[in-house]
Design goal:
The protein has one domain: MetI-like (MetI-like fold), CATH 1.10.3720. It is 65% helix and 4% strand. It is built from 14 helices and 2 strands; from the N terminus they run ααααββαααααααααα. The chain has a two-stranded antiparallel sheet with strand order 1-2. Helix 5 packs parallel to helix 9.
Length: 317
């Protein structure tokens, strides 16, 4: 009797023939469909503008956000006052967004806050997606891992995310790294549950069963046949995590348990200005506007990508 040996490459090729939705390179039609979505265009434009502001902050910011002069405190937007320069000299300065109770330039603090908020949102999204993807792939494909992994995730989700973040920040110093980790941990179970649900349906597909029957290893099946199908949902989920992380960081800073009060974050700016909101609303409104615009842009981008990439939501001609 002749023995037939099938190489790993032939097994993958045979599985691709069975698979009806084998991943293909993004075509021009897909990108045109994405760009035709008005939510994607608006969200991408606003988010791109915020990213440009964050990159150009050292040149757009008029002074160091830490510098202050009590003689120029509580100035209205557009007023001219004095500020102590880095060399120790007192120079005239125009406060485009006014000054706070310590005489610091709100305009420069808001611009530098853009950097921190975008960094926190992006880092939290990458961290949550990375760990959630690994946990979800393991729990969804290997049945013996499903029970322990999901019970751990259920335990994390049982506690409100803000309380988890407050507890973790309280245990360690309120550094930027600590805040990113504390905000990202509550988001990991959501990514894990998403990836697991995808794996539970994908592992029963004919092309996966064909790859298994042809002797393809589990790692190769996950990387070649299953992982590409999680890219689009994870991109959408990542935008929501980014927006949620920026709001959570602002809430922690507003409550005084986030980043140090002297750091120019939008949450810290609003927290410092809340006591004088009735007399000087600009201390809160400018930072709140930037936060709201950025979060709205990220959410709109996520909604647009979901409407475009989800096959169930694509309008058929």
């Amino acid at each position: 009797m002749n023995h037939l040996t099938i190489a790993a490459g032939d097994a993958d090729a045979a599985a691709d023939e069975v698979r009806p939705d084998a991943p293909r390179k993004p075509s021009g039609t897909l990108w045109r469909r994405i760009w035709r979505n008005w939510a994607v265009r608006i969200g991408a434009a606003v988010l791109g503008a915020m990213l440009c502001v964050a990159i150009a902050t050292p040149w757009l910011g008029t002074v160091d956000p830490m510098l202050f002069d009590t003689a120029s405190r509580d100035l209205l937007p557009g007023a001219t006052g004095e500020i102590v320069s880095e060399t120790g000299d007192t120079v005239a300065h125009r406060f485009w967004m006014g000054s706070d109770a310590l005489g610091r330039d709100i305009y420069s603090r808001v611009l530098y806050g853009t950097r921190i908020s975008l960094a926190v949102g992006s880092a939290c999204a990458l961290l949550a997606l990375s760990f959630g993807l690994l946990a979800g792939l393991g729990a969804g494909y290997f049945r013996w891992l499903e029970m322990p992994v999901m019970r751990v995730m259920d335990g994390i989700m049982a506690v409100p995310g803000v309380l988890v973040a407050i507890a973790l920040v309280s245990l360690w110093s309120g550094s930027l790294t600590t805040v990113i980790i504390a905000v990202a941990i509550p988001e990991i179970p959501r990514v894990t549950r998403l990836v697991r649900s995808l794996m539970l349906s994908l592992r029963e597909e004919p092309y996966v069963e064909a790859a298994i029957s042809l002797g393809t290893g589990s790692l190769r099946i996950i990387v070649r046949h299953l992982l590409p199908n999680t890219v689009a949902p994870l991109i959408v989920q990542g935008t929501y995590i980014c927006a949620s992380a920026m709001l959570t960081e602002a809430a922690l800073s507003f409550l005084g348990v986030g980043l140090p009060a002297e750091m120019p974050t939008w949450g810290n700016i609003m927290a410092e200005g809340r006591s004088q909101f009735q007399q000087y609303p600009h201390n809160v409104l400018f930072a709140g506007f930037f936060l709201a615009a950025t979060v709205l842009a990220v959410n709109m981008l996520g909604d647009g990508l979901r409407d475009t990439l989800d096959p169930k939501m694509v309008k058929q001609p």
